[in-house]
Amino acid sequence: MSVIEKNSRHFPYWLLWSTLALLLAMLLGISCGMVKVPMPELLSILSGNSGTALHETVVLKIRLPRVLFAALVGASLSVSGGAFQAVLRNPLADPYILGVSGGAALGSVVALTLDSQSPLVLPLTAFCGALLSLVLVYVVARANQSSTHTLILAGVMVGSFASALLLFLLWLAPADSVRNAVFWLAGNLAHVRPGWLPWGYGLSLLAFLLLWHQARVLDLFTQGEDAAADLGLDVGRARLLVFAAAGLLVATAVSMAGLVGFVGLVIPHVVRLLCGPGHVRLLPASALAGAAFLVLADALARTILAPAELPVGVITAIIGAPFFLYLLRLKGER
Amino acid sequence: MIQLSAVNFSYEKRRILQHLDLDVRQGELLTILGPNGAGKSTLLRLMRGRLRPDSGTIRWQEGAAHQLSRGKMATLAAVVPQLMAQPFGFSVREMVAMGCFAHDSGRWNRWGLGVEQQRTVEQMLAVTDITHLAEQTVGVLSGGELQRVLLARALAQQTPVLLLDEVTSQLDLGHTRSIAELLYRLCRDEGKTIVQVSHDINLAADISQRILMLDSSGAVVAFGEPTQVLSAKNIDAAFGVKVQVEKHHSSDALRVYPLPLRKKKLDR
Which of residues 47-86 of A touch B (CB under 8 A)? Predict the structure, then answer.
């Protein structure tokens, strides 16, 4: 059986199942909330027919954008996590753990303190912050290539440093915006402006396509930079491209939802177990699974203490941090 | 094929190679012998342009080694590196297929391998005797099996030159023999040029056209045909070990035997 036959035999099913899972998760996400909308009416509103005015507003103006944002953030974080794991050759890599999210958050807060209203300024400063911390982590970890843990430690330190700067900036800012920002930092989808939806999807789609086009190059990166270069890869250029695309994904996600951790760690791992390590399949499957995961986590965050709302980052951390520890232990045993 | 003249190289203060002149001929199997830290792997890295010599030149027909692009070099020389952990669960077949990137990086960016490439992959799985492992995850392979996978991947690059870094270090006696036969045939029948680093002196004596022997300071102890290089005196100079060198009775091949440990002296 050849590689192609194998891929084409499994992949469409995978695509089908994960798309179905995502649609179900989104439906569940839209049906959750204080105002109960009966399922038949919900479906009819979603398919373009009218329901009661209140229900229409709740479903189309509030919940649908919210769920679409959650899906976007989940997909972006998962795909970037998968890409970082390949390029850094470290299955423990995740934008949050690597401090990339922290850098992006710092960038976002800088933009917030400058009080810019344009939908592009925030992702752009977040992008600069993400790239800066990524380069910092990479340069430190590169000096000690043999250790996978150096990378993680460097990431945690860069993340701490970014959050210290960030708290300092918040301390300088007026009091009421601080309160908002603190919730936003814990990972929260409640503060996104609906007008950002097309921008977010546009940027993330661009970055995703860039990465997906590099899928088989990411396969080579898993062999280590040395081996990848011997196989004929221009490592420096490819790495820059992947860093930029993955950084853009993180920046988009963070500028919309703040610090949502561990999605980029958990999802690519689970997907790798289910459909193999090849990035041609891993990236789109991670995107769909990550989207479904965060939509569900957000639904949980909204309902668990209703009418109060938990930051979704709390849910993902409660699931993700033990998972990280489990992986760490697994690595130790090998 | 590859011309090294007056090459010096050092890592920071430590001198690795000193004034090395070497002309790798097309179609030969050249073995580099020497103690740990002599600079054997470094020499392979210099040859493929991954390192630049402090002084001296390393030239391929296509140009100076360090000036050739990674893509170009991957079509000239395939490398079997020393073993490293495989944290991602690729299958053996997927690993071998990565060798095809060298010749077709444009197509590689798309979804799968062409028919021609698939045939190459299956052929290389067969010649390295790992077809039965094709669907296995590389993480569960033994060191020897992984070495054969890496060799198959290098062969799938279909380059005129192979640079092998201790490719038989983890192989059992049977597989060492069959890989040695494969390397010998690749040189004789397909005109491949092979430069290998090895610690297996008898294997080197069997299959090498020429041997380069370095000592621990990276200086050349001897260079030439196995019968000239493999003398008790040279091996003592390079490794500091007394050996007995004999001609095998039914062929002209040399056999190198380390003398038995002098246990009485150690017990004292």
Answer: 86
Closest CB from B48, B69, B79 relative to A234: B69
| CB-CB neighbours of A242 under 10 Å | 22
Please check whether residue B74 is in contact with residue B157, taking contact to mean a CB–CB distance below 8 angstroms: yes
Mean local confidence (pLDDT), A181-209: 83
Q: pLDDT tens digits, residue range B145-184?
A: 999 999 999 999 999 999 999 998 888 999 899 889 999 9
Q: Report how far Cα A279 is from the mean position of its chain's Cα atoms.
A: 17
Enclosing H/E stretch for A248: helix A235-257
How far is Cα B119 from Cα A44, in angstroms, rounded to an integer?
53
The shortest C-alpha distance from A12 to chain B (Å) reads 13
Buried-state track A118-144, b at ≥16 Cβ within 10 A, e below 16: ebebbbbbbbbbbbbbbebbbebbeee
B50–A91 C-beta distance less than 8 A:
no
Chain A closest-CA separation from residue B223 CA (Å): 27
Distances (CA, A) of B99 to A85, A126, B117: 21, 38, 10
Burial (0-12, 13-18, 19+ Cβ within 10 Å), A241: middle
CA atoms of A72 and A293, how far apart (whole Å): 11
pLDDT tens digit sequence for B71-122: 999 999 999 988 888 888 899 999 999 998 888 765 554 556 777 888 999 9
The three-class DSSP label of residue B105 is: helix
Which pLDDT band holds residue A242 (cuts at 50, 70, 90)? Answer: very high
Q: Give the span between the Cα atoms of B171 and B165, in whole angstroms.
A: 13
For residue A1, the model assigns a pLDDT of: 39
Residues of chain A by 3-state class (helix, strand, coil), percent to 5: 80, 0, 20
Q: Answer whether A224 sits within 8 Å of B84, measured CB to CB.
A: yes
Beta-bridge partner residues of B210: B30
Report ipTM for this prediction: 0.89
CA A310 – CA B145 distance, rounded (Å): 51
CB A75 within 8 A of CB A68: no
Instruction: Measure in Å the smallest separation between the Cα of A230 and chain B Cα atoms.
Output: 6
Two tokens, residue A311: 């930051």
Continuous segment of H or E residues that includes residue B134 = none
CA A27 to chain CA centroid, Å, is 21
Contact A282/A275 with Cβ under 8 angstroms? yes
Q: Are A3 and B118 in contact (CB under 8 A)?
A: yes
Predicted local distance difference test score (pLDDT) of residue A41: 84
Per-residue tokens: B220? 């050349």
What ranges make up the beta strands (E) of B145-259?
161-165, 193-197, 210-214, 220-224, 243-247, 254-258
Residue among B148, B158, B12, B178 at smallest CA distance from B78: B158
